Amino acid sequence: MKTLIMKGNEFFTYHKTSQIKTIVIVFSIIIAIEGALFHFVIQWWSNIAAWIFTVLNIYALFYLVGLYHSTRSLPHVIKQDKLIIRLGYQSSIELDIRNIESIINAKQGGIEDKLPKDTYYSLLKMDSPQYEIILKEPVLMKGSYGRKKQVNRVVFRSDQPTKMLDRINRIREENPSEME
């Protein structure tokens, strides 16, 4: 795998080792089959309702495909002393690398586990997290539909986790006096 570097920015993908492609394929098949079956069932009741339901299913398919392509097009970015962690167009967080208190291996959890409210998960619940960034000060996370919240922890994965972590730690070590 190759890390892209453009104008001092380093880009780290996260879609290649993620389950997002599998999830998009599986849910697209389910939505297509379910949409076709329910279209005919609803059509017995109302032709207009059947077509509304079908249009909503087509929208859901476009949404899933768009989500997958956005994870390919919007990688994690390290620029100067900033780190941007994303989950496609769904959400993102930009944090100052000097605000990082520590980076630890993330705890593996199940789908049914309750997620803490002060933590930003930059992955699908079906994916296994790799690292957890613990922040000194809370940072504003931007979610889908304009949602915003303050978070103290960031859980993420990367296709090149060691390389990304090394780069973050190198930046943290370059300015140790500023991090106090």
What letter string, H or E per element, gives the SSE order? Answer: EEHHEEEEEEEH
What's the overall average pLDDT, rounded?
Answer: 84
- First and last CA, distance: 35 Å
State the helical fraction. 25-40%
How many DSSP H or I helices? 3
Low-pLDDT residue intervals, each spanning 5 or more residues: none
* Backbone structural class: alpha+beta
Give a structural overview.
With 180 residues, this protein is an alpha+beta fold. The model has no long low-confidence stretch (mean pLDDT 84). Strands 1, 2, 3, 4, 5, 6, 7, 8 and 9 form a 9-stranded mixed β-sheet that branches. The radius of gyration is 20 Å and the shape is elongated. A hairpin with a 5-residue loop joins strand 8 and strand 9. It starts with a strand and ends in a 6-residue tail after the last helix. It is built from 3 helices and 9 strands.
Can I get a quick summary?
The protein has helices at 20-45, 47-73, 161-174, and strands spanning 4-6, 9-12, 76-79, 82-87, 91-96, 100-105, 119-121, 131-142, 148-156.
Write the layout of secondary structure elements.
Layout: E1 4-6, E2 9-12, H1 20-45, H2 47-73, E3 76-79, E4 82-87, E5 91-96, E6 100-105, E7 119-121, E8 131-142, E9 148-156, H3 161-174
Parallel strand pairs: 7-9
Antiparallel strand pairs: 1-2, 2-3, 3-4, 4-5, 5-8, 6-8, 8-9
What characteristics describe this protein?
3 helices; 37% helix; alpha+beta; nine-stranded mixed sheet; 180 residues; single chain; elongated
